[in-house]
Amino acid sequence: MSRYRLAPTPAQQAVMRDHCAHARYVWNLAVEQHRHWRPGKKSAPGFVEQCRQLTQARAEYRWLAAGSQIVQQQALRDFARALANFLGGTHGRPGLTTRERRRLRRLTRKFARAKRGSNHRARVKQAIAGLRAREADRRKDWVEKLSTSVARQFDTIRVENLQIGNMTRSAQGTIQNPGRSVKAKAGLNRGILRSGWGLLVRRLEDKAPQRVERVSPHCTSQRCSVCGYTDAKSRESQARFVCTACGFACNADVNAARNIAAGHAATARGGDGVTRPVNREPQLLLQLV
Ligand SMILES: [Zn+2]
User: Fold this and answer.
1) Is residue 280 part of a domain?
2) 160 lies in which domain range?
3) What's this model's pTM, rounded to 2 decimal places?
4) CA–CA distance, 47 with 220 (Å, rounded to integer)
């Protein structure tokens, strides 16, 4: 099979991104509907009923109607296929990671109880390794996709120089390509945070040589991103920042990310250590919460 790289224009890229967002939205709704089903309950809607509901939703929501019905219906068709595969016993349940975590916990307990040297123990061990490998693959895939996209979109990329820990990273966009706010989901990122952050920074440095600056985390969470005043008391709580000087209030992680994006804090490695004046908001705030 041949593989071709598409070279869409920025306008086409925007359309494609919207298609993906709509397909994801519709897919997640389908997952949600089926997740609530329990034995004895009326069955969750099938493909035909879901398509009818989609038509209704499109009539109600203009942003959904603005997208392609074909793309949205295809997401439902894909879901129906995935569900049929699951019921046929050949594939896992679509909507795939909380369940995996539960399964991993169960297997780990089983492993601890299994008799040493037994076949049973060996089988459990293999199942655990399989699950872990799958998580690692997903993480690597995510890191590759994200680092490629960030390296393409942004000129200067500033990351908080942490081993692990603070959940907010930021990057500054270019004027031509301002980027968007991205909030990644908690469940998906739990595994990524565990060991993916270092990998993400490494791959960013590979793909955007000389353009990645590591910013020291020193004071980034205590400094006001609007007036520059630094005070530990401004950090009202883990989640909330309220400047004691100018009263600016904001999510604490977002405030810290703006400081990082603006390069405020001593540059620990890479970059020239010079704080540049910034007269606009950082364009991409990547929050891994
Ligand atoms: Zn302030």
Assistant:
1) yes
2) 137-288
3) 0.48
4) 49
How many angstroms separate the alpha carbon of residue 242 from the centre of ligand 1? 8
- Per the CB < 8 A criterion, the answer to whether 275 and 250 are in contact is no
Report the separation in Å between the CA atom of 231 and the middle of ligand 1, taken as the mean of its atom positions. 9
Q: Do the domain assignments include residue 224? A: yes
Task: Please indicate, yes or no, if residue 282 is contained in any of the structural domains.
Answer: yes
What separation in Å is there between the alpha carbon of 119 and the centre of ligand 1? Answer: 63
- Do the Cβ atoms of 192 and 136 come closer than 8 Å? no
DSSP of 224-272, one letter per residue?
A: -TTT--B-GGGB-SSSEEE-TTT--EEEHHHHHHHHHHTT-S-EEESS-
* Strand partners for 240: 251
Q: How far is the CA of 251 from the centre of ligand 1 (A)?
A: 13
Q: Contact 131/107 with Cβ under 8 angstroms?
A: yes
CA 248–ligand 1 middle distance (angstroms): 5
CA of 249 to the centre of ligand 1 (A): 8
3-class SS at 22?
A: helix
**Number of neighbouring beta carbons within 10 Å of residue 245:** 13
Residue 250 forms part of a structural domain: yes
How many angstroms is it from 279 CA to the middle of ligand 1? 15
Number of structural domains in the chain = 1
* CA 230 / ligand 1 centre spacing (Å): 8
Per-residue pLDDT tens listing for the chain (289 residues): 566 778 888 788 878 877 887 887 787 777 777 766 666 667 777 888 888 888 887 887 777 788 888 888 888 888 888 888 777 766 666 557 677 888 888 999 999 999 999 999 999 999 999 988 887 787 788 788 888 888 887 788 888 776 443 333 333 333 444 333 333 333 334 444 555 677 888 888 999 998 888 877 777 888 898 998 999 899 888 778 999 999 999 888 778 888 887 776 533 333 333 333 333 333 344 443 3
